[in-house]
Amino acid sequence: MRFSASIALALAALAVAHPGEDHHDELEQRRSFEASAERLSLRHCAETLKARGVTERNIKRRSALIKEHRQKRGIKKRDLEEVLKTDHNKTDLGYTPNTPADILFAGNNSCVLTPEVTLGPYYVSGESVRRNLKEDQEGVDLILDYQIINVATCEPVPELYLEIWHCNSTGVYGGVTNQGNGNFDDKANINATFGRGIQPTDEDGVAQFETFFPGHYVGRTTHIHLLAHANATLYKNKTLGNDIYSSHIGQTYFDQDLIDEVEALAPYNTNTQAVTTNAEDGILAEAANQDFDPVVEWTLLGDTVAEGLFGWLAYGINITETEKVTPAVFRYEDGGHTNPDFGGGFPGGPGGPPPADASEAADTTSEDA
Questions:
Q1: Cα-Cα-Cα-Cα dihedral of 291, 60, 75, 163, to 10°?
Q2: Which of 191, 244, 241 shows the shortest CA–CA distance to 360?
Q3: Pairing state of beta strands 309-317 and 141-150?
Q4: Which residues are the signal sequence here (predicted)?
Q5: What is the pLDDT of residues 139-182, one digit of tens each?
Q6: Which residue, among 241, 243, 238, 152, has the nearest Cα to 200 in the 3D structure?
């Protein structure tokens, strides 16, 4: 799909975003990146990936993964008689469970991760390498298949750590306590880890997650944040530590029709925060154009959205780019600690700076040591 939007309308919506989240800075940084960077989508890689068997492996992998999760949930592929009796007017809501794998998974929407954009006030370092991010959160199951491609060589990028984080079904981020992010009096939220995790990419540059469809909050459309860690070290505590240098950053978005369908379900429909649509989101408007499509391709796991979703998207990165990342919160063994040097992180706020005797002893020994 392709996305177009009114930048003026989007900027007006951003004026009432979460306190501490400066979307205008992020817009300016993205504009600067797009003006100076070589405009490389993954279109030029299509034939190379196909010739090297990556496209065929994508189809087989995604087909196997969606079969696994349908079986796990007791969702069966319908027989022909049942299919013929069913109204298939679901064009705007995605494919049916009976769409052949070679049609369903052959295409790839793609976007290029920028070397550095504003992370916003919700990035927490020291999160765990894990695949399942749902914990005790309610919401529509979402299985994600991300693929990372080197835009310079058209080769998949293996042994890279892909990190994602997103809010819960009612628009609250775990791990951060500040004004505008849920109940400010809930100081325990700084220790929450739902919707956050890291996965390594395999030989095809693929990282997969099991999570839940995010909700919305004021000033932003529904989205998921991504951070690609190149040349990172995995420590014995199953984290990448708190000194983060590699930062290819981006966001994943969803079709508006799909968002509307999910938002009609509980507990999403209990969220009282004002809705910002895709067409009103300035950051999405800047990210989506004729070369880049940051909207996830998706299909239903069953017959309805409530039974879960499977989504996939390819990202291109320049593997040589690295930047130091400044998190809003550091996570240590005793929980979250607000970064006193983070501009939007409310210095001295909930959690406070790391304790004087805080040790990353578990972080200083690599997994391979």
A1: -50
A2: 241
A3: parallel
A4: 1-17
A5: 999 999 999 988 888 889 999 999 999 999 999 999 998 877 87
A6: 238
Q: Are 311 and 296 in contact (CB under 8 A)?
A: yes
Q: Which two tokens stand for residue 69?
A: 């999760």
Asked if 143 and 224 count as a contact pair (C-beta separation under 8 A), the reply is no
Three-state DSSP state, 189: helix
CA distance 267 to 110: 30
- Encoded tokens for 322: 């690295």
User: Do residues 177 and 235 touch, judged by C-beta distance below 8 A?
Assistant: no
CA angle (248, 249, 251) in 5-degree steps: 145
Nearest residue to 211 via CA among 146, 132, 268: 132
Q: Which of 164, 143, 145 is nearest to 156 (CA)?
A: 145
Q: Which of 111-115, 238-242, 322-326 has the lowest mean pLDDT?
A: 111-115
Rounded to an integer, what distance in angstroms lies between the CA atom of residue 366 and that of residue 357? 21
228: Cα separation from own chain's centroid: 11
Contact predicate 256/278, CB 8 Å: yes
DSSP 249-301: EEEEE--HHHHHHHHTSTTGGG--SPP--GGG-HHHHHH-SSS---BPEEEES
